[in-house]
């Protein structure tokens, strides 16, 4: 093929309607530049409509999710490109960097386009690179909200997630602090992370919960019961590590299915999630524009019921 793209790569990239072709510096061949077809939308909390395929902004930081990325301009480009491609749900946390992910989002995208939902989190502290430690103390969380507002240059955070339930602090106390921030107009909606159905039900006695963010992908379905709970209750389920996190997704079935669809395993993992449930809001993360474009193109990849079944086996 022209421009040195082999057929398989061409088909993979063109799933995005030409979007990916800019990777090799050619003009888009298939019309619309933006991936408007984001595999439909979901209303977070009943009032924030987002395209279901979002973006996770953890990987735009330094190694070990620590400090600034090696190439700050590249990180800015990834964020801008995500929005260009139709992403209107970006997940971040004060702990990513710490602080640098939120700061980069503001640097790249503020003033924010209408309808962009930035979901941040608090409740995990960072003693060092690769280290994470919960702190769910109410006073700590209250200042986290204030600091995220400042870094993100927002008057109100659309979705604030409790990054972890701290086993040393009753969840009612942690959530009570977020409830206060909500009453003060600093937070619109509240979400949880890494929680069971029982924990969500208990949390909802203190404050309305609209989303849950648990680890979930083709290889790791430990939280299936939480997903079922979210479906029943109409809560958004934001799977983290949707394309397998550090290790990727690996199985013979996935490799075979990807080959059969002329797609990459990453695209297959995303397409599977989107079709797995209407409340699924995948937030794949990347530091690379080429990977981002490839991932976004997965919204157009459709799996048959048989293919879905084979992958779930
Ligand atoms: N709530 C929580 O406790 C929690 C925990 C972890 C993450 N999160 C959130 O979930 C988001 C996603 O999680 P994650 O980043 O751990 O996992 P992920 O999105 O499954 O995987 C990201 C990794 O996959 C690589 N990758 C992505 N797309 C690729 C592609 N098309 N081809 C090749 N490699 C690709 C990335 O490397 P490159 O940079 O080289 O593309 C990166 O190393 C994070 O950004 C964060 O917002 C939440």
Characterization of the model:
It is a single chain. This protein has helices at 7-14, 72-84, 100-109, 138-152, 171-183, 197-203, 224-233, 252-261, 265-276, 289-297, 305-312; strands spanning 41-44, 48-51, 55-56, 89-91, 117-122, 124-125, 133-134, 157-162, 187-193, 211-213, 236-237. The protein is of the alpha/beta class and 313 residues long. It has one domain (34-312): NADP-dependent oxidoreductase domain (TIM Barrel), CATH 3.20.20.100. The strands form 3 sheets. Strands 3-4-5-8-9-10-11 form a 7-stranded parallel β-sheet, with helices on one face. A hairpin with a 7-residue loop joins β6 and β7 (133-134). α2 (72-84) packs parallel to α10, α4 packs across α5 (171-183) and α8 packs across α9. It is globular, with a radius of gyration of 19 Å. The structure holds NADP nicotinamide-adenine-dinucleotide phosphate.
Defining traits:
313 residues; alpha/beta; TIM Barrel; seven-stranded parallel sheet; two-stranded antiparallel ribbon; 11 strands; globular; disordered N terminus; binds NADP nicotinamide-adenine-dinucleotide phosphate
């Amino acid at each position: 093929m022209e421009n040195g793209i082999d057929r398989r790569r061409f088909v993979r990239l063109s799933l995005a309607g030409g979007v990916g072709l800019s990777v090799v510096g050619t003009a888009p061949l298939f019309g619309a530049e933006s991936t408007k077809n984001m595999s439909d939308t979901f209303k977070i909390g009943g009032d924030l409509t987002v395209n279901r395929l979002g973006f996770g902004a953890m990987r735009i930081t330094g190694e070990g999710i620590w400090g600034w990325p090696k190439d700050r301009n590249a990180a800015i480009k990834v964020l801008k490109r995500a929005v260009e491609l139709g992403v209107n749900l970006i997940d971040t946390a004060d702990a990513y960097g710490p602080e640098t992910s939120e700061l980069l989002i503001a640097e790249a995208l503020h003033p924010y386009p209408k309808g962009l939902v930035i979901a941040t989190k608090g409740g995990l502290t960072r003693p060092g690179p690769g280290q994470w430690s919960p702190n769910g103390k109410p006073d700590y969380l209250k200042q986290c909200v204030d600091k995220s507002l400042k870094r993100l240059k927002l008057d109100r955070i659309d979705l604030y997630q409790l990054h972890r339930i701290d086993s040393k602090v009753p969840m009612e106390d942690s959530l009570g602090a977020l409830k206060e921030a909500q009453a003060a107009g600093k937070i619109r909606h509240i979400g949880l992370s890494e929680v069971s159905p029982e924990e969500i039900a208990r949390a909802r006695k203190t404050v309305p919960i609209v989303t849950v963010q648990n680890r979930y992908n083709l290889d790791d379905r430990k939280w299936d019961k939480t997903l079922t709970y979210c479906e029943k209750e109409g809560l958004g389920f934001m799977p983290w590590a949707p394309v397998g996190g550090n290790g990727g997704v690996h199985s013979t079935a996935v490799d075979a299915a990807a080959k059969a669809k002329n797609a990459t395993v990453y695209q297959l993992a995303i397409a599977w999630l989107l079709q797995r449930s209407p409340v699924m809001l995948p937030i794949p993360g990347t530091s690379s524009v080429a990977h981002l474009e490839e991932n976004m193109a997965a919204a157009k990849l459709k799996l048959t019921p048989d293919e879905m079944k084979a992958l779930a086996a």
